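S2.1 Query sequence (GDSL esterase/lipase)
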Amino acid sequence: MIGEHACSKQSRDRSRSHAVAGRSPEIIMGYDVGRRLALAAAVAAVAFWAAETRGAAAWGGAARPAAPCMYIFGDSLVDNGNNNDILSLARANYRPYGIDFREGPPGRFTNGRTMVDFLSDMLGLRPPLVPPYAAARPADLPRGANFASGASGILPDTGNNLGGHYPLSEQVEHFREAVGAMGNASAFRGNATRLEEHLGRCIFYVGMGSNDYLNNYFMADYYDTAARYSPRDYAALLLQGYAAQLAELYGLGARKFVVAGVGLIGCIPYELARMNSNDSQPSSSGPDTTPSVGGEDISISIGIGGGGGFGSGGDGGVRSSPTSSNTSGGGAAGNAKPTPPDGAAGACNETINSAIAIFNRGLLEMVKRFNSRGGGPQPQQMRGARFVFLDTVQSGRDLAANAAAHGFAVLDRGCCGVGRNNGQITCLPLQRPCDDRGAYLFWDAFHPTEAANRIYAAKAFASNNTAEVYPINVSQLAAL
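Output structure tokens follow.
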């Protein structure tokens, strides 16, 4: 891992050394110097036309972007190529991945654009796509960068079964490097206040946690976390680490956060294929996680460090409610095989979904606490920061309930892949995917299609339903 990381960093450094120093000035030709008034009128007309062109190109016709920059942290749902050059099974730089993507190199775990690709477009960034940090040039960084990495999680060990990747803590360290590079750039050199103000207007999208369940907690053959933690204690452990990394980003200048919850991964083709198979699965032992999580309380506290930053400090422990202790003497080891009722072939894995519900509830409460203005039971912990929570579960349920209206006809299998539900193995190199990709909710065993990503992004950007986006949507966050 260390050697791979060093090689990847050297590759990034080499790629950044080719940054273009500046843009060529415009040259005005063919005018008589004596006709100054005509020249002035022509220049004014050109300037007006250019502004109008920029305005027409921006999403929704806005002349200026809603946010000047966007930084992305996450896993394969939003990775756009950071894993391409490292030794990892979690890569998507081969066909048919990206079969409908014509705007750059491969690396996205879908057929076209990801959810954050659409979101950056809706925010008005031009060009609309944020580059992967592994290939970003120094000149790119003030406009944004994507630090996401397939197979990554909140816990450093998550996803190790798939090889190399960058966990959330390393993604944050990469952003720290980027901030240092921007501080030395001509646009901000010697003016830390200007850089701070710039970053304070940017959108910081963070979506983590899926792999901490798929490629950690519910993978008992490789990890022992389920044997050591109850679902509630495990969620609390994840939230503690999550809060610490969000605090690190805050200390580096982030102020506008979009935090995505974990989706219903118990309903993805991979889990449906396992449920519908006769393969040997672990027994359903461990604590029951199926009751409603409405009464659960997972409390996260982090200490406030010096210099405006945050640290876990002596106050940085995690506190779960008394009911979250593992009284059974074991966690959810092997809980990944539910027992659907007779005739319920294709039903979701509610054992996994129930564990995720505990995490999502705690994540929402954390967002509420960070948004607190004081005067209530929870003091504000990140002064000047604003957090938006994306309830991916609610958005996914609404999308499935109105699938036909959105043009979806297939909800339980991947457009490409191998085995039951096209969910036992992800897309093979050069495999021919389905023809009508817009009719499929899932691209492969794990990831949505471009058509689904477009809808998820639209909901995040403009929904007024606080069950989907809380307390405001992304466009409103950008306007603050």
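The chain has a mean pLDDT of 79. The two ends are 41 Å apart (CA to CA).
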